[in-house]
Write a structure and sequence with these properties.
The complex is a heterodimer.
Chain A lengths: L1 H20 L8 H5 L19 E4 L6 E6 L4 E4 L3 H27 L4 H4 L4 H9 L2 H13 L2 H19 L8 H6 L8 H15 L5 H19 L48 E7 L9 E10 L1 E2 L4 E6 L4 E6 L8 E4 L2 E7 L5 E5 L9 E4 L2 E4 L1 E7 L7 E7 L5 E3 L12 E5 L7 H9 L4 H8 L7 E7 L4 E6 L14 E2 L18 E3 L5 E4 L22 H11 L5 H8 L5 H15 L7 H11 L11 H16 L15 H10 L17 H22 L6 H5 L4 E2 L28 E3 L2 E7 L2 E7 L17 H6 L3 E2 L13 E9 L5
Helix pairs in contact in A: 3-7, 6-9, 11-12, 15-18, 15-19, 17-19
Chain B lengths: L1 H19 L4 H12 L4 H26 L5 H4 L8 H40 L1
Helix pairs in contact in B: 1-2, 1-3, 2-5, 3-5
Classes of the chains: A alpha+beta, B mainly alpha.
Chain lengths: 813, 124
């Protein structure tokens, strides 16, 4: 009996431990999470920065001082470059370790290790995109450049010094929720981070959808739905720029493309990933200085995409936004120049249809030969599940992403991916040189090492120069090459060579005294190379240029205001027609509809946060667009609907185009019918929104800009309902989940540089930090922080809240 | 007196041990205390529950107070309760249950041998 009683209590105790120490039905392990010594309580911080004032770290060569300012930006003062990047790695990990690791688990297709088999398809898509394959090639290339490699190794050592000092109690809270632990950092992961950026910014393409659309509707309709360009666009490099070089010309061979339908696609990068950068020279400014701006418009996440840092050593003095996981500054300035990026859209992913010799898939046809494939078995570890093995067949083009085992059910459809991000490159060398560049020549030299994701890299110097260059690695294509799925058997359809660096687009000190870019078309039709993409921007660029053309005596404040410009170009181009159609029908409007009509009729097209009209317009447009393109609903193949610009173009210029009609009705609808139908639907939807949310449908409430934690179910770690105006296709590009992830303004004069910046988040990624997400309000209302940027900052400077010293750990030597 | 001694001992263990060892090892130490200072099973459970529970409750409360609920205000939204005090109580409850059941397990283990011993005494 007593033995039984003992066994009973022992069983209860063990069961309690097991239940509380393990995830239970999708919940985190409660005992592990709630205990006061090691659980989440330990992640609560008393102050904005809690870090020992003296740290002894193995592998450091000399003492490093780090001073944190009021925004907790680290100002790192090192006596040599390796220590500088070591300290950057250490302090970035201190603030952002979980994010650094998690985003690369995603890139490497390893989320199943954390989330189990529900992440399996996602992981397979990543692996089949060849991201780790590209990173591996990049790593080999970097090893040939000892200087650049040492920088990455130093950063890696710094991250690892931080990780090795962690106990369970110190782990970022996300590890505790998801119940896993960090692993050592590697140089490979730094390289993989660049592939992550390529995955977000240069993997976009429409080859599969274009092939489907062409087969469905024929060339004539296809060209109406997806024109490559329109008259009157405002490109990055101004119309009239001369291209003074002898281009490498490739003639279009007489080829045919495979005619295949595909049903599904791996997830596309978000089209709203974009950016603005605009710079004015001394002719345009009030005090003769050069004023530079940049803001990358990306997913609005917490922890933030950017981590601000000031790097100082005998060879560096630079400040700006860094990417957690990579050494150096990506968007920033030093005492001579400022630089930034906007995504340069270009179709850099092409698909080749592969014919295997037999179902062993060991050989594939290439002209009259059979070439050997290489098979790589990807091992995907699945939490609480069986390890999944995925065999990926590689051709000389790249991985066969789509085949009988993934996304397509047919033995006959095999698509190999050709993507510049798979090629060996050493992009870090570019940042290394860029961070200490003094002038335009240094800047050009730095970017000669840069392959991608291609960027419109903008430049301003204290000596008065302004410029923009479209940097990256671009294949030389014949017209139409890679717009549709190509035939992998036919060598004439393969990329033959790449554009020389001297032939890329450039605008240097143009006569209009400003340069700008906003992801639009790169240049006009006189550029000798084929530069197709399916997702160019049509609005932000025109608004920025419209303004800059007329602005004079520009101040820093004016440039900040232009970054927050809320003018809705789409509304200005289509709303008058929409209202006109409703006006003709005004007798049948209900009382509440008349209110909406009046709101829009008196609206000045600015998406200010407290205005209600933008919400009405947005709803109206959101109901109009699907009924214009109702033809797409019934299709079972993968398709992309035409962009807003072309939709409006067709509505206004081609109202008899067959797609305007709603297929499911017996009458032929006019554009006016569509506008009215969409209006009544929108009015209904607004009523429903009001019932569910609030009477006040102010734009910011309706839009609900949310800065979302990378684990969306942890809603208390996200911030929603941010009171900011704008939208996608508006200069102030804050939409629901995308927007300016880092705003920077820099003023450059012969006397030096001064910078301001703000981003929607906080340096600390810890939701238990009193400053967590603290910059969001200032970001939304347009308040910038002046960036503390001096070659020397004293310990008792009143803008400094904490000083720490990192010293070499003598015991480890 | 035994109950007080057990409460103090488990309290000390609950305060110090989880700083260096995994949190659940508290149960193991509770077993040892329950074994060494044996007594009635219910008393043993209650002393473990009170000692371990109170220390964890107070520790959580102190952290929460010092950090002005900066994190617990967020975490509590993930639970079906809406006040931070329930998180603190839950923390105490976990500490209490682990200590209490650990201690009563230790005591009941000891009692297996006590039983044998007393039998031999009476039978002699």
């Amino acid at each position: 009996m007593k033995v039984f009683r003992f066994a009973f209590f022992l069983a209860i105790t063990i069961a309690l431990i097991l239940i509380l120490n393990n995830p239970f039905q999708g919940n985190p392990p409660l005992g592990k999470l709630l205990n006061p010594h090691q659980g989440f309580w330990q992640n609560a911080e008393k102050e904005a920065i809690t870090i020992p004032e003296e740290l002894n770290l193995p592998g450091l060569k000399e003492d490093v001082t780090i001073r944190f300012d009021e925004q907790v930006i680290p100002h790192i003062f090192a006596k040599n470059d390796e220590d500088l990047f070591y300290a950057q790695g250490y302090i970035t990990a201190f603030h952002r370790l979980w994010q650094m690791e998690f985003q690369l688990l995603s890139t490497a297709g390893r989320l199943s290790e954390v989330f189990g088999d529900r992440a399996l398809d996602y992981d397979r898509g990543k692996r089949r995109s060849g991201l780790t394959y590209g990173a591996q090639r990049g790593l080999e290339e970097l090893k040939k450049d000892p200087e650049a490699f040492r920088m990455l190794q130093a950063y890696t050592n710094g991250v690892n010094a931080y990780i090795s000092g962690l106990s369970y109690a110190d782990l970022p809270i996300e590890y505790k929720f998801l119940d896993y632990e960090p692993e050592p950092w590697t140089v490979f992961k730094c390289v993989l981070l660049m592939k992550e950026m390529s995955d977000q910014l240069s993997r976009g393409e429409r080859d599969l959808q274009n092939t489907n659309a062409l087969k469905l509707w024929g060339q004539e309709v296809f060209d109406l739905l997806y024109p490559e360009t329109h008259p009157g666009l405002d490109p990055v490099v101004p119309v009239g720029t001369s291209f003074d070089f002898e281009p490498i010309l490739v003639d279009k061979p007489d080829v045919t493309f495979p005619q295949i339908f595909t049903q599904q696609k791996i997830e596309e990068p978000d089209e709203r990933n974009g950016s603005n950068s605009f710079i004015v020279n001394g002719q345009k400014t009030a005090d003769g200085s050069v004023i530079f701006t940049n803001e990358p418009d990306l997913a609005l996440n917490l922890p933030s995409i950017w981590y601000l840092a000031h790097l100082n050593s005998p060879s560096y003095n630079t400040i700006g936004g860094s990417l957690p996981g990579a050494p150096g500054i990506v968007i920033g300035f030093n005492d001579s120049i400022a630089w930034g990026d906007t995504n340069a859209k270009r179709d850099l992913v092409d698909w080749y249809h592969i014919e295997f010799r037999d179902d062993r898939r060991e050989e594939y046809r290439y002209d009259n030969k059979w070439l050997k494939t290489q098979k790589i078995v990807e091992e995907i570890t699945v939490k609480n599940g069986q390890t999944f093995y995925d065999t990926i067949v590689y051709t000389h083009y790249g991985p066969v992403t789509y085949d009988r085992n993934f996304q397509v059910n047919s033995e006959k459809i095999n698509l190999a991916m050709r993507w510049t991000a798979h090629d060996a490159s050493k992009d870090f060398k570019a940042f290394m040189l860029l961070n200490k560049a003094n002038n335009y020549d240094d800047f050009k030299e730095a970017y000669s090492y840069y392959t991608g994701p291609p960027q419109n890299v903008s430049f301003a110097s204290a000596s008065g120069d302004i410029a923009i260059r479209i940097s990256g690695k671009f294949p030389v294509k014949w017209e139409g090459q890679g717009k549709f799925i190509m035939d992998g058997r036919d060598s004439r359809q393969e990329w033959k060579t790449f554009m020389p660096y001297e032939h890329i687009y450039e605008s240097f000190n143009p006569p209009r005294n400003f340069v700008s870019s906003a992801n639009q078309h790169p240049g006009d039709s006189t550029y000798p190379y084929y530069d197709y993409d399916a997702t160019f921007e049509y609005y932000r660029n025109r608004r920025i240029n419209d303004r800059l053309k007329v602005m004079t005596n520009i101040t820093v404040k004016d440039m900040m205001e232009l970054q927050h410009d809320n003018f809705n170009y789409i509304a200005s181009e289509i709303l008058p027609s929409m209202l006109d159609s409703l006006n003709r029908d005004s007798l049948s409007l209900s009382q509440s509809d008349k209110v909406l009509f009046e709101q829009l009729n008196t609206w000045d097209y600015f998406n200010h946060p407290d205005e209600q009209a933008p919400s009405v317009f947005e709803l109206w447009w959101d109901h109009l667009y699907p009924i214009v393109w109702d033809e797409y609903e019934s299709q079972e193949v993968s398709l992309a609907r035409p962009n807003s610009y072309n939709t409006i173009y067709l509505l206004k210029n081609n109202p008899t185009f067959s797609f305007i009609d709603i297929q499911s009705t017996n009458v032929i609808e006019t554009t006016g019918d569509l506008y009215r139908k969409a209006f009544y639907e929108a009015s209904q939807a607004l009523q429903e929104w009001k019932t569910d949310n609030s009477e006040d449908y102010a734009w910011y409430k309706f839009k609900n800009t949310t800065i979302q934690h990378l684990l969306p179910p942890l809603t208390p770690f996200s911030v929603s309902g941010v009171p900011i105006g704008g939208n996608h296709n508006i200069v102030n590009a804050a939409s629901g989940r995308h927007g300016p992830s880092w705003r920077m303004v820099v003023q450059l004069t012969e006397k030096g540089t001064k910078g301001w910046g703000v981003y929607p988040g906080s340096q600390s990624g810890n939701p238990g930090n009193p400053d967590y997400a603290h910059m969001i309000d200032d970001w939304a209302s347009g308040n910038y922080y002046e960036l503390l940027f001096e070659p020397e900052i004293s310990a008792d400077d009143k803008r400094i809240i904490k000083n720490i010293k990192l010293s070499p750990d003598s015991s480890a030597n | 007196m035994k109950i007080l001694l057990r409460i103090i001992l488990i309290g000390l263990v609950a305060y110090f041990v989880p700083y260096v060892l995994p949190w659940w090892t508290l149960a193991f130490f509770a077993m040892i205390i329950g074994f060494v200072i044996s007594g009635h099973a219910l008393n043993s459970f209650i002393s473990g529950f009170l000692g371990g529970g109170a220390v964890w409750l107070v520790l959580a409360w102190m952290i929460d107070n010092e950090t002005q609920s900066v994190l617990s205000n967020r975490i509590v939204q993930l639970f079906p309760v809406n006040e931070v005090i329930y998180l603190i109580i839950a923390t105490g409850l976990i500490g209490g249950l682990i200590s209490g059941f650990g201690m009563v397990t230790g005591t009941s283990f000891r009692q297996i041998f006590i039983k044998k011993k007393s039998r031999s005494l009476y039978s002699s």
